[in-house]
Amino acid sequence: MPLPDQTMRIYQFISEQIQQEQLPPTHREIAKACFIAPAAVEHHLEILTKAGLILRIRHTARGIRLLSVDEA
């Protein structure tokens, strides 16, 4: 099942941030860059987690890790 466009834009932003800054973005940074409410970030990250594209480390400000195909 394809992922929603907004979710894929968020995934792309996370990937670019990790490449450029060597750190994943915070929820607030994702919300600002993707023009969504901070509360909506959690929803999209949950979709990405269920799709096997990211791993989330709870209770950490930058607790997002991209998963390779081998890890998913």
In the predicted model, the low-confidence regions spanning at least 5 consecutive residues are: none
Helix count from the secondary structure assignment: 3
Give the C-alpha Rg: 11 Å
β-sheet strand percentage: 5-15%
CATH class: Mainly Alpha
- Sketch the topology as an H/E string, one letter per element: HHHEE
The level of helicity is: 40-55%
* Shape estimate: globular
Count of separate structural domains: 1
List the quaternary state of the chains: single chain
Mean pLDDT, to the nearest integer, reads 92
CATH fold topology? Arc Repressor Mutant, subunit A
Structural class: mainly alpha
Largest sheet: 2 strands, antiparallel
The total count of strands amounts to: 2
> Largest beta sheet: what is the strand line-up?
1-2
CATH architecture assignment name: Orthogonal Bundle
Quick take:
This protein has one domain (5-66): Arc Repressor Mutant, subunit A (Orthogonal Bundle). Helix content is 53%, strand content 8%.
Question: How does this structure look, described?
Answer:
This protein has about 70 residues and is mainly α. The chain has a single domain, classed as Arc Repressor Mutant, subunit A, CATH 1.10.10. About 55% of the residues lie in helices and about 10% in strands. It has a two-stranded antiparallel sheet with strand order 1-2. Helix 1 (about 5-20) crosses helix 3 (about 40-50). The longest helix is centred in the first third of the chain and has 17 residues, at about 5-20. It starts with a helix and ends in a 6-residue tail after the last strand. The relative contact order is 0.18.
